[in-house]
């Protein structure tokens, strides 16, 4: 391990790497990286390049290329992430419509594209054209009646089951890591944890394909969270092409932070929101340099998606809305109520979903992932089809709920009773009494809301790609639209009430129900994820509603306060703890008055600490110690009697160094003395050749005294990204504290199961 002190040259890893071993400086799977060591290695590399750049023009050009490599990686990530997002959007659009019918003129056209190209489409019947035929029209030449409805219903379910089965089979066979949202694991990886294969090429390919399939199947999930995972896979692929990033896990994580920003940028068409999301929600280490690069990657990704124009509206998003009335102070009360609803829904969802996922992990249910997906898909399709608000794709539903009712809207939600004498401009339609279509839509929305709330609990966490942003927004948008219509009708029928009198005169356009849907969507998404700043920015970028930042802020803050009153964890942190990942959340506070001596190992009654001595152990002794223990490294002391600390040696590098020495150095045998000092020890004549391992020794391991408060130790682990620190008293080694020990102690203090922390 090489820490901050190595920048001064002590224990420098670079002289050890003059003839590098294979895999030196790398980490084993499911282990945490050492941030200080990675920082030190990058500093050494940079210093070496700078000094060489003065030697020749070629070296100077190489130094420039090295400096620009970061921006090149960002450009490539943005281009690929934007392209994949555009392709996914187009494919989802087509496959979602395929469940209901097919375009005869070109089968690869979605319903909307099919009718765009038709010359026989009228404005009133813009969703109907001869080229687009439902399955009943194509197979039995009937578009109405019970038999046509039953056939369409049956084929809708069959297509949904086919898509879901194909998706779960691909995930199970080719890329098990392609399941879920990916954000909990991305957060853990960015905090320094190694999960090999999680960001691999197979995961990228399978997640992209299966994401199209599961979203098209009609399951209650979204593609936005998984798009962050897809973008991070792109980041990992491109960083492996540049040694600056492929050989340094710390630098690689800077690239992945920027890739996460690009993922949100294309998921929502929100480049600034993407950067803030990466900063607020997923990144662990986010220097200013990464902020600029994230901004550039998000910009390129958004530009690429805009060039593809998947929604055909010259916008980055499907939900773009324009409202024509301002909001009024009296409306803050229903906005805050929506915030309370969002916080309560977030709490309910997290507790129920985690309980279900825990049941899946600990019972026989987890052994049948394919069957679980098929059953949930069948239930979703059977219940969703009869209700027009659950039958369509969730993105289209949110888009309709956000929309303002203009003069040309044909939606049931806009079935108001018009005044025949109205002579107002199209954009300024006054509040009107609700017609039968609105009341019918309210019942259907209420049923859809209950269905979405229940089915999302069971859907999120299955062995398929599943995002949570869109289902959460749909729940909030449905609740918000119903509240908005209620407030609108109240204002229309009781405009003489004191709360309406000042701002809602008869014949005025006072209340915009679509705005309530937007605020409700933000509140529910905030309640589940606990985002605040990035959420508000994403919402106004998503909808173009810059004027409505204050209502969005009020709802987001209220939902966070309400949800935090029941538990501080958002859904991603809850899944991290459920999986036992070693994640030290910067938001967690440690207020207990324990000391380092209470947490360090060995504890009283345990075997003494396994250590190496500086010049009295043989190669065989070291190999035996490595074989009999599974520790990540060993403290090096002067002798077992004095136990005065010299440094720390990593397990992996000891194995590699001994293996390399046996292959390359003559005279190194099992009874060769291993020494970590500058000069070899005095040995009797005819002794085998000693093995010097000082170059792999970290001479400045991080140490604390036994009376250091654990509050300070937790802060040190969090801010410096340590794997372990040694506990000493007056230079004498007493014990060791690893990241796992810290996390287990924090869990114990919070009355949770410390054994739930499975990795170091």
Automatic annotation (TrEMBL):
Task: Cite the CBS domain residue spans from the record.
Answer: 600-664, 697-755
Top-level taxon of the source organism? Eukaryota
Family annotation (Gene3D superfamilies): 3.10.580.20, 3.90.1280.20, Clc chloride channel
Which family does this protein fall into? Belongs to the chloride channel (TC 2.A.49) family.
Stored SMART domains: CBS
Q: What is this protein called?
A: Chloride channel protein
> Its gene?
Clcn4
Which cell locations does it reside in?
Endosome membrane; Membrane
This protein's major location comes to membrane
Signal sequence region? none
Any one GO molecular-function label of the UniProt entry: voltage-gated chloride channel activity
**What does the record say about its membrane topology?**
Multi-pass membrane protein
Any one cellular-component term (Gene Ontology): Golgi apparatus
Q: InterPro entries, alphabetically?
A: CBS_dom (IPR000644), CBS_dom_sf (IPR046342), Cl-channel_core (IPR014743), Cl_channel-4 (IPR002246), ClC (IPR001807)
Q: Name one Pfam family in it.
A: Voltage_CLC
Q: Which organism is it from?
A: Anthoscopus minutus
Keyword list, A-Z: Antiport, ATP-binding, CBS domain, Chloride, Endosome, Ion transport, Membrane, Nucleotide-binding, Repeat, Transmembrane, Transmembrane helix, Transport
Q: Which chain regions cross the lipid bilayer?
A: 68-92, 153-175, 195-215, 227-243, 255-279, 332-356, 368-385, 441-461, 468-487, 515-540
